[in-house]
Design a protein that fits this description.
The chain is α/β, with parallel strands linked by helices. It contains nine helices and twelve strands.
Length: about 250
């Protein structure tokens, strides 16, 4: 395996990446014997973008990505290019229809991929992640995001707490999701540039991160349920924000 490459698999993720960010794809491997009609879109996109296509036995795909449902296609992609936080910050002009997500050490790639997909679908402007203790954008993330990982910037900050202070200096208000939050999600108005913090799957937000938030939001729970999965919580806040944004349009 080439150390400069990652691999994504599955027809939909590969097809979406070829449509949205073909320059990131170095080579596509197709399993011999798979019907050409089922992979014709992928072959056409590779031809259009002059991306090499190699027919290989199934054992080669196994060597690349292991025992997964690869659907007969694997793409070798260059290591993801995160957007530098400082560069991103100077490029934006936030207004009351701008929102970003800050991930406070999300470690499960399935959660990360699901959050990426929801953020892109709901109109979030960017996802900001810490440099350390954060799931990388790997094949599982691409698969779970259904190929939407390249739709919005993935911004990497060396220090998430410092990034929060800089966001505040640039008109953003910071809201953290916390089971003990003093404001209920449905009762809060989001009519300024917003940054929503999603905490770690097990530990939630770090204490210092919570201290940098302007306010903490809670999601109402019934029937003795204590908390929701991080990606579900992110989806709820994304779509509450989107609903309010659309009502202002």
């Amino acid at each position: 395996m080439d150390d400069q490459n990652q691999f994504i698999y599955g027809r939909k993720p590969v097809e979406e990446l070829l449509k949205t960010n073909p320059q990131q794809v170095d080579k596509v491997f197709l399993k011999k014997g798979v019907g050409s009609s089922s992979l014709s879109k992928i072959s056409d996109l590779c031809s259009k973008n002059r991306i090499p296509v190699v027919d290989v036995p199934g054992s080669k795909l196994f060597d690349l990505v292991g025992r997964v449902n690869d659907q007969g296609v694997v793409a070798a992609i260059s290591q993801v290019e995160y957007v530098d936080f400082e560069d991103w910050l100077v490029s934006i002009k936030p207004d009351n229809k701008t929102a970003v997500l800050l991930l406070d050490e999300i470690e499960d790639p399935h959660n990360f991929g699901a959050i990426l997909r929801t953020a892109a679908a709901s109109g979030i402007s960017a996802i900001i992640v810490p440099k350390h203790r954060q799931a990388p954008v790997n094949a599982t993330v691409f698969k779970t995001s259904a190929g939407t990982a390249g739709r919005i910037p993935i911004v990497r900050a060396v220090n998430l707490n410092q990034a929060m202070l800089q966001l505040k200096e640039n008109q953003f208000w910071i809201a953290g999701l916390d089971m003990d939050g003093t404001s209920m999600l449905w009762e809060q108005t989001f009519d300024v540039p917003m940054a929503f913090v999603i905490g770690n799957e097990g530990r939630g937000m770090r204490k210092k991160t919570g201290e940098h938030c302007d306010f903490l939001l809670s999601i109402p729970m019934e029937n003795g349920v204590e908390s929701l999965n991080a990606s579900v919580s992110a989806a709820l806040v994304c779509y509450e924000w989107q609903k309010q944004r659309m009502n202002r349009s």
